[in-house]
Amino acid sequence: MFKHLSIINRNQMAQISSKLVRFFFTGILLIVFLLGQAQDKPSFLGFRAGVSIPIGGYAAKNLDGGSFTQVGFNVTVEGAWFFKPKFGVGGSVGLNMHPVDVASLGRVRVDENHFLNSVVIRSEPYTIITAMGGIFVQLPLNTVFSFSAKLLGGMLYGKTPYQLYKPDYFLLPDNWAEITSAQDWKFSWQTGVGLRYHLSPCIDLIFDTDLFYDQLSFNFNTASGLRTDTKTIAFINTTVGFRINL
User: Fold this and answer.
1) Domains of the chain, with CATH numbers?
2) I need a surface site. Which of 40, 134, 161, 243 has the fewest CB within 10 A?
3) What is the pTM of this model?
């Protein structure tokens, strides 16, 4: 049977949210600081958006660790200051949202419960926010194209979706059930590669692919006590945008 699930500790939620805000603005300030360094050295501020593709257990369609996520979207603000022609330091702040495949989730729920004829599910997406800093590399390929790569470390924050269930039980009352959101964050990493097309001395087109992989633990209160769900958070972002060379 479905039971009401809730976040274990509202004080913990407030603490996590406060830390999230601090990390977010720290990331922004890091970018601004780096771009504010010596103006005679190459630096940039970039904006990207595109698809965010869940992989591995994060996209798995099972109740044993799977999250039933689908392809979502990403938006990223990124900047770096290059202390050498090919090497620099910088930061990146990104928002990722992955919708839930409620049709597959409903089928699995029905298969797992012999008393359940059908279930209608309404779900918010998973929300992932990252704020990271690290090393950037840029290698010119010719007069208009250059290859880039990065290795960053910092905060990865995840929020599970709020969900509503409307079950149809065999010979049992049909009561609405809900699963409220839970949150977690940890120090994580990001790696990526990209291609730059130089439109002008001030503007470049950006084609980037980034990889994120880690595990987060989400705590819930249930009728039978505390439950902790450890979920793999893994996805690839493929984005297009532009950067302003400063």
Assistant:
1) 6-245 (2.40.160.20)
2) 40
3) 0.81
